[in-house]
# Entry
Amino acid sequence: QAPEIEGDYYQLARLLTKEEREKQLEVREFMNEHVKPIANEYWNKAQFPMHIIPKMAELNIAGLTYEGYNSPMGSYLLEGFITVEMARVDTSISTFFGVQSGLAMGSIYFCGSEEQKKKWLPPMQRLEKIGAFGLTEPNVGSAVAGGLETTCKKEGDKWILNGQKKWIGNATFADLVIIWARNVEDNEVRGFIVEKGTAGFKAEKQEDKMALRTVQNALITLTDCEVSEENRLQNCDSFRDTSKVLKATRAGVAWQAVGCARGAYELALNYSHTRKQFGKPIGSFQLVQDLLVEMLTDLTAIQSMAFHLSKLQDEGRMTDQQASLAKVACSRHTREIVGKAREIFGGNGILLEHDIARFVADAEAIYTYEGTKEVNSLIVGRDITGISAFV
Ligand code: FAD
# Structure
């Protein structure tokens, strides 16, 4: 196998199978050829490069771990490496993919009926149908497990949805949005596949974000929005079912943080060779080397942690709490790593043309979404002490 580039210092990629390594490198090539040249431009104008979707579909990587339904089948470990390849170039693109493959397809895979899976998963796997995942609300972020304000009410063979959803990635152009709502009858959460064009469904783009600007987040308003019983996720009776989706995607976000950190480290290492001060490359100064080594230390630690988490996942042994611990650790260290990378760029670190500014901003979103640092810490805290700090 070819030697791995700088950011995989412990050569974890050598532990992939030959086929997995080939897929990893295929995704790398896709990102370098089709995303890298346009990443800053689309981030700056806050638009999504829709034209890359058919090219991404050719990689055949969506829904990798879902058995059946057109899935090419692959390990969670490979999925993690693919996430790194995306995020080390553009975290927005890996977020688009994570929403599609993890959150939207995952909701149908874990909570849908056989019929719903057969209908929706194959076209979503081919990226012909794009999905979104609507859980968070303007008034309910961290507290989604207990207090959704969006309601659903059964009337005959239809459900009536009312409420708002905030931050919903891909939702401005998605063909379907998974909406989670509280059933007024029993106060338990239900999930719905709301198709584009449904009366009473409105998605408005959230403007002026300072992170993940390429991702199209929407504020969704549901006004007496009618959804058929056929489009209710048939295997979801409470938030416990929603959590099955989040368990897998939190592990994915840990890998995304690794990718963002790795991209930033590699940019800084490269810059330390090309930028000269006092007649020497800045990488020749002891203090700059120390910064680089601090970054590499943390990067290697979180890479190894995510790697082992995926191994547990592949063995069917990963717990929710282990996923939360990795999400906390990886996103926290990433925030520090991108900050140090920017420091190495000096003033150029805040210019978009040098890429690193985009990584610094995007790390803030990773730190917060899929459960904040505090919320994921409390999930682990409850596990280790046996005492819930939530109530
Ligand atoms: P809040 O819940 O208001 O939290 C504010 C602060 O209070 C945080 O620091 C938090 O940790 C702290 N806090 C809250 N409760 C406690 C507690 N009990 N103890 C200690 N501290 C606490 N959601 C979706 O459904 N779909 C998406 O596609 C999606 N995409 C997103 C994309 C981006 C770029 C962002 C920023 C968010 C996205 N989200 C999405 C929402 C995301 O999951 C929420 O932002 C996140 O869960 C936090 O909720 P909040 O922003 O309302 O913060």
